[in-house]
Amino acid sequence: MKLLLVEDNRELSSWLSRLLNLSGYAVEQAFTGEEATLLLLTQSYDAILLDLTLPGLKGQTILKNLRNKNNEVPVLIISAQDSLQDIVEHLNLGADDYLAKPFDIHELEARLRSLLRRSSGKTNPITSCGALSYNSNSKIFSSRGVDLNLTPREHAVLEALIRQMGKTVSKRHLADSLCTLNDSVSPKALEIYILRLRKKIENSDAQIITLRGLGYMLTYVATS
Description:
Blueprint: E1 2-6, H1 10-22, E2 26-30, H2 33-42, E3 47-50, H3 59-68, E4 75-79, H4 84-93, E5 97-100, H5 105-119, E6 126-129, E7 132-135, E8 140-143, E9 146-147, H6 152-163, H7 171-178, H8 187-200, E10 206-211, E11 215-220
Parallel strand pairs: 1-2, 1-3, 3-4, 4-5
Antiparallel strand pairs: 6-7, 7-8, 8-9, 10-11
Helix pairs in contact: 6-7, 6-8
């Protein structure tokens, strides 16, 4: 999952980015509204964490511009402006949730997980594909009740696939879910992750199918 963190406090941004990385998110940082706007022109994100009191272009303007362009990316406001009027105003502008500073990182992650579930049309934290299941709260994959031992990048690939279960996920989307602009994933590396995942889920009735020229699909294959 790829996040855009828009926060002008570099110390706070670095701390949040580090903790979210440890939880398996790929995080890109923007310290001004202008930097965020440039990133949004060329990059796509699963969610945005947005401060309001930014230098230059304010967070409120970024939110307005997103919704005016019919960009429905989930937005979680993180702000020291914690009056009821501020919260209601920004929810009405199109924010998906609002978290007042200072906050606990566990609450931030819980709200982020809930926001991502809602954006994908799911309310249950458990997603299953046959005997393969994923708990978005614990971020654990299991096959027939046994937890899978996945590397961070294997986990990110399988999470992207199970969130779009039964649908084609392009190689570019998978690569984007693994890295930021300061990182990269080669097509060969992605193929290796897919091969490893196929081995690790082979005792389940879930399969990763290659659709040549299109990408990959996680699907349930019934056994007779």
